[in-house]
Specification:
Helix content is 34%, strand content 18%. It is α/β, with parallel strands linked by helices.
Length: 244
């Protein structure tokens, strides 16, 4: 069983690639949480795939894993996707999911409120490298490899234990989201939000307070009119499909 959480699609793609290679079944964490239905453990292993959000696992991932009842002795593995590095995210996650093995997979950057998107060349190169790494991870998972191969980057403790709480408290807000002229009320932003945090009010998206800044709504908007403050204009939008 492989459980994944995704915003812009990177972690979903990694989870499905892994499942294709290992024969495991995939489950969407956001759907499990919103339905209240957590599947019972089956098989001989369980894995989780998730994106790094400011050097930790997203809040819904921690919430879900804290509810997951994994039988004693079942092999556990974790894979995080990140634009550059993971900090101490896996160590933080170990409080609710102590993985036997863990990996980080570098994928294209998507957090445009603070950073630029990778160039097409860089993004395509990351996806190519990820394909190869995923096959190696799948092989090691099937062999029940133990050990962590996670790129923590520089100052990992500072990033995960100091910057992350500050970021969550002072930066992760919904009030910066808005739409430029050209919104067609298509509802894509409502459909792609993994938190169920967006709804249409009089034909325009309205953001509630459960936002985790995954930017699924911003990147998923077909008209590319969703903005966060003024920092996301002229920064482009991420579509994983361009690089597959």
């Amino acid at each position: 069983m492989i459980f994944y959480f995704t915003g812009t699609g990177n972690s979903r793609w990694v989870a499905r690639q892994l499942a294709s290679a290992t024969g495991d079944e995939v489950f969407d964490i956001s759907l499990c949480l919103r339905s209240g239905n957590i599947p019972p453990m089956a098989g001989k292993r369980v894995g989780v795939v998730f994106p790094i959000h400011s050097w930790r696992a997203p809040r819904p991932v921690v919430e879900f894993l804290s509810r997951l009842e994994v039988p004693q002795g079942m092999y556990r593995f974790a894979v995080c996707t990140c634009g550059d590095d993971a900090g101490k995210a896996m160590q933080c996650l170990a409080r609710v999911f102590d993985a036997d093995a863990a990996w980080s997979v570098v994928m294209p950057n998507t957090y445009v409120p603070m950073f630029n998107l990778d160039t097409d060349e860089v993004a395509a190169g990351k996806v190519r490298a990820a394909r190869e790494l995923i096959q190696e991870i799948a092989r090691q998972v099937q062999e029940e490899h133990s050990g962590w191969k996670v790129h923590e980057g520089g100052f990992p403790r500072f990033k995960s234990y100091v910057l992350n709480p500050l970021f969550a408290r002072f930066v992760v807000r919904t009030r910066g989201f808005h739409t430029d002229d050209g919104c067609t009320a298509c509802g894509t932003c409502v459909q792609v939000c993994p938190m169920g945090n967006v709804r249409l009010v009089e034909g325009r998206p309205k953001w509630e307070e459960a936002c985790i800044h995954c930017m699924a709504c911003l990147h998923g908007c077909p008209a590319e009119v969703i903005q966060y403050g003024t920092s996301t204009r002229q920064k482009g939008r991420y579509r994983l499909a361009r690089y597959l």
